[in-house]
Amino acid sequence: MSVPNGPRRDAASSEDPAGGLSTATSTEPAQGYATGGSALVKVYGSGAAQVRALDGVDIGFGRGQFSAIMGPSGSGKSTLMHCLAGLDVPTSGRVMLGDTDLTALPDKKLTLVRRDRIGFLFQSFNLLPTLTAEQNILLPLELAGRKPDREWLGRITDALDITQRLKHRPSELSGGQQQRVAVARALVTGPEVVFADEPTGALDSQSGTNLLNFLRGSVRDLGQTVVMVTHDPVAASYADRVVLLADGGIAGQIDNPTSDAVLEALRQLGG
Ligand SMILES: Nc1ncnc2c1ncn2[C@@H]1O[C@H](COP(=O)(O)OP(=O)(O)OP(=O)(O)O)[C@@H](O)[C@H]1O
What we know:
- Helices cover 34% and strands 23% of the residues.
- By secondary structure, it is α/β, with parallel strands linked by helices.
- The chain has a 6-stranded mixed β-sheet with strand order 6-7-8-3-9-10, sandwiched between helices. The chain has a 4-stranded antiparallel β-sheet with strand order 2-1-4-5, with helices on one face.
- It is globular.
- The model is unreliable at 6-29 (pLDDT under 50).
- Bound molecules: adenosine-5'-triphosphate.
- Residues 44-45, 51, 53, 71, 73-79 line the site of adenosine-5'-triphosphate (ATP).
- This is Putative ABC transport system ATP-binding protein.
- It comes from Actinopolyspora biskrensis.
């Protein structure tokens, strides 16, 4: 799978031609990044049942970078991603999407930001069963009242090798095809950031490899920013950077990770 030349990538290009690749570190504040958080705390429950899922996290993800978030079970990966993506609200701290402070937005505006500026990719493909593949892909645009860019749509679906399957419903597609439809849906709006939660978790290894290559290519060729939560060191090795979490805090980072380096880091964290 190769990645088409994109139509327009206003966000990824202008301010940071280096794509943030060399400058991002896990302890810098949120501003100036595609997405990030400052002093993020997330507390669930109260009293004896209280859990501090995030315990003062400072993190920035550079534009045009493919980042993986890893760590032992319960370390706060999903919580961090959900807070960054505006799916959950931190107890305190600030979440930035570009120059927008998500934590300062009222619910309605946050919904619009999620719809218009963020792409989502989950382990379960979350396609609507009654819609065709094409209708599923175009849904975010439809909800936004935006007209599809047919050329862009054609390029994405060609690159993902699903052009022949667009009239089919999800139940008529393989798991790998369904996930590729979900990828097309995540990219169709030209989002500033794609958040992916275990995107290869439900795929066979060949489909998973294809998907990771595509995501990698979208970063390389389109300047897409991708933030992925994964348990899989091989999946993480496709990223430019791995951020390690432990007990709700940043435990380290690995630039240009190999699966062995990730495995060793996780072993040290007890994951
Ligand atoms: N809605 C919730 N209510 C109460 N506690 C929660 C809730 N969501 C998460 N937690 C707790 O917060 C901590 C962090 O959870 P989180 O799901 O972010 O971890 P994770 O690193 O993604 O874990 P895993 O790898 O198992 O998916 C855990 O102790 C979890 O039990």
